[in-house]
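user: can you give me the structure for this one chain? tokens are fine.
assistant: on it. calling the predictor now.
[tool input]
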Amino acid sequence: MVRIARRSAESHEHNGRCRPYVSKFLAKEFEKASECQIRRSTNDSYEATLSGVSHRVSLTERTCTCQKWQICGIPCEHAYGVMIDRKFEFEYYVCFWFRTPMWRRNYTEGLVPQRGHAYWPSTNLPNVHRPPSPPQPGRKKGKECKKDKKRKKGPNESPSKKAPKKLKRIMHCGMCGEASHNSRFHSKKKSSKQISE
């Protein structure tokens, strides 16, 4: 509410034909617009060349082939270059949504201040509460996941017996065949046996 009142005062104090945003927007495009090479054609159309790329600009239809003018309503760098070359005022070619009267009209009817909730009318209906939050994706905390659930056993499986534990693989030496070591440590085992003998 305070922001709307501040913007309303700002719009009524402004004396220009267009909003300050338009002049800031075109100030950024002034450098490129001044570099455009302009060639006049018939039917109030122009050819604007910038960085080797040409675009067709029509001031009467307010169009440019780069489509930027039609999309945002403010003349693009090509159309602005034509206006600089022909010494036209850019304010006449800006969309009416960016004009100062429309800006003032947006903020004429602001938010109306309301009385406190003590003065609100009461009803016999139940109070309105916040709806429950929607379920979030991912694993639910406190609930069993698929891994925690027991697997259903088949008809030929015992319900109480567990599966036998798998025996670990016994390592054997590839040179002598003993189970106490592998081929990597064969020479160390052999030398330790000779020293002990």
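assistant: here you go. The beta strands are 37-40, 45-50, 53-58, 63-64. Residues 105 and 196 are 106 Å apart (CA to CA).
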